[in-house]
Amino acid sequence: MSNKEQTLFSTFLDKLKGKYIPNEKEQRIIDIVEEMCNQSDSDIKMAPLTHRYFIVNKRLEYWIRISEFEVTITNHKFTLNYSGNAKFHTLLQNTVSNSIEQARNEFEETVFQNEVELLDNIKQSLTLKY
After folding, report:
1. Structural domain count, the chain
2. Are the beta carbons of 91 and 75 closer than 8 angstroms?
């Protein structure tokens, strides 16, 4: 299923089931997770078997762990543990997954561009030698 088809399907399911609206605390957590994902120096890891996500930013000294049942945000001074409902945690996991997917797409585009440049350089060097 393409990304467009997945988006359309998700939109259809949201309308069918009713889209989850986070409370004020959950929305702030979502905003923090999104902002951490957007920081270029954040390191995002995923544990695929347990569906846990880790976001680490050493410069800002924040660490986030997201699981199916809990989100933990911590630094050297505080730790926040929050257990919301399943829809909230799925929303958080999807936010991080989308960020990972976007970063991988950008990486792939860069690698592909580098491959094209490499092929151009090889072709040019072969042309110059003959």
Report:
1. 1
2. no
